[in-house]
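Researcher: Go.
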Amino acid sequence: MLQRGLPLPKLASVLAAALLTAACGSTTASTASSPSAGSGKITVNGEAANDHGTKDVSGGGSQSVEVDSFYFNPTVFTAHAGDKLALTLSNESQTAHTFTITEQNIDKELAVGSKVTVTVTFPSSGTLLFFCRFHRSQGMLGGLKVELT
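Model: Structure:
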């Protein structure tokens, strides 16, 4: 029951603004915690990336990756140094993309609707950058990040 304070329409506006602010919080950390974090930005090796989450793949194995309109989902993978990971990349957008890791001589082009599998190795330390050669400047990049444990 509201007897004092803000009138109901004003209170509703204040609550809506608070919820919107909470839902649209800033993503300035180096990575987000969920595989579908959304459309924020993160920094990977000093470059702005379109953030679609982080996935722990310690021990290696295999992982599906959504390749879409200027992002990879997940954007960052974490594992231990030397872990190997098979990535099945699916281009779900209406334009061609690449998956490129210069240091590992990987450069696979994905036509619209295509899939390709690549095997990557996590670096001895730090974060190894992967990107789309066509759309890197639009934030289409991610990383293989070594966990310190």
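Model: The longest strand covers residues 61-68.
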